[in-house]
Every structure is written in C-alpha cells, then in structure tokens.
Amino acid sequence: MKKIFCTLLVMVLALQAWAVDLPKQGFGMQIGWAQPTLRVNDPSAKDSLSHHLQFRGFKVGVIYDGSFAAGFGAAMGLNYTFGVYNSGWESRNPAYGDYPKDRQLVTYNQLEVFVDWQYKFEVAKETYLILYTGPTIQCGLTLDWRKDTKDDITGEVVTVRGDAIDAYKVDPESSVGQNAIKRLNVTWGVGAGFQYQRYFLRGGYDFGLINPYKNSDFANGVHTRGRFDQWEIKIGMYFWYAD
Questions:
Q1: What is the model's pTM?
Q2: What are the structural domain ranges in the chain?
Q3: Cis bond upstream, residue 135 (ω within 30)
Q4: Within 10 A of 10 (CB to CB), how many other CB atoms are there?
C-alpha cells in the first residue's frame, strides 16, 4: 500500500513541476456525484455478487488546471470516491413464494489520480466550454460487502455475513473467491464542462481498461472478464487562479 501511494504522489508532483511555467494556472477543489459500475462480461456469472453493481455515491478532491496556449491545456489532481450498493430485498425463488429473500449491501472507497487533456472554447469574457479526455489511476481502499436473508417462515432478518468482507482481500481460491477484486484499476475518460471565472462544472464517463477480477475461472469454468467504469459530475472553484 505504501508503494502505491508513493507512486501516485510522485506522478502528481512530476505533473505539477511540468506545468509550472504555463501561462494560465488555477488550483482549487471539486465535489460531486459518482456512479461507479462493476461489470462482468460472462453471462453465466449473472447471479454472482459482482454482476453489474451500480454504486451511488460522491467524490471530492483537489484539481490543478494549466493552459498552454490557444485554449489547450491539462487538468490534474486527486479525488476520493465513496459509493454504496443496496440490492433491496429480492425473493430467491419467486415461483415458490415470497421467502426466503436476500439482500446484498456493498460499500466502496477509493483514491484516484487523474490527468485530463483539455481544450477550452472561450464563448464570452472569462466564460469557457471545455472538452477533455485522459487517464485515471484508481486505488481501491475497501470494497466491503455483506449478505442478509429473511427467514423463509418468520420473515425475520438473518445476517448471513455479519462482518463485512473486503473483496480486495478475499482469496480467489476461497468459497467467496468469485468476489475477489483487484485493488488497482486504470480508466480512460471523456467529458465536457463549463467554466465561468473561478467556478466550473465538469462531467463525463470513465471506461475501465483492466479486468478487475482476480478469479477469472469461477463461473462454470468460463474465463470471466469485466470492467470497472464510472459516471461522474463535479462542481468546483479555483481558490487561486493566475493569468
């Protein structure tokens, strides 16, 4: 873990050193909505925990923005993202009655280092439309999940796994190995935004470039692959901005 954070820190410092002579620069913070989505491409794994989980959450972070000339530049920074997934109560065998019912609860925490290459169209004085694209390195901190069941006779809640299991630490060969997820992920994002003076709005979609599953052979002997994608919308402001 220490090596991971050191690598991410070195990347940010190197990018800041590279951008120090840019004619327009800004440093600020951003906060917004996020929807990380863990996908699986193997149809035979559709009943596993990790089948297309859509988290609802938020992100907050710091951003450095620098322009070269004629609107070209880059934005880079560090984000923290939190998300939660709740499947709600679902009947295990609908054809045979309402019970037993299962519920899956998953919480998700990660850090992200991003670099967005961008172009700003000046549509009015100090007002810009922004188009951007670039990579993000994600480092998962926790991916905790638990499963509850309602008793098939009384309807009372029975906690199947009372203590949350961290999917980043699960042994791929264990009985819950189908939920073992890699901690590091790389995405490529595309997005658009709007900036007025020191204030901005940015939103886009990040496509996962790495198969996140540690255990690629848990579903009926089929090689399992997938992606960790993300929708995001952020608002923010630059505390320091220089022309």
A1: 0.80
A2: 33-242
A3: no
A4: 10
Burial-class residue 12 by CB neighbours within 10 Å (0-12, 13-18, 19+).
middle
pLDDT of 137 above 90: yes
Amino acid at 196: Y
10 Å CB burial of residue 175 (0-12, 13-18, 19+) is: exposed
User: Which burial class, exposed, middle or buried, applies to 211 when counting CB atoms under 10 A from its CB (0-12, 13-18, 19+)?
Assistant: middle
Please enumerate in sequence order all residues whose Cβ is within 8 A of that of 221, keeping only pairs 6 or more positions apart, or say none: none
Question: How far is Cα 29 from Cα 170, in angstroms, rounded to an integer?
Answer: 34
What's the CA gap between 55 and 108, in Å, rounded? 8
pLDDT tens digits for 64-78? 998 877 789 999 999
> Which range has the top average pLDDT, 7-11, 29-33, 145-149?
29-33
Displacement of CA 130 from its chain's centroid (Å): 22
Which pair of structure tokens corresponds to residue 214? 């540690």
Take residue 136 and report the two structure tokens written for it: 């993000």
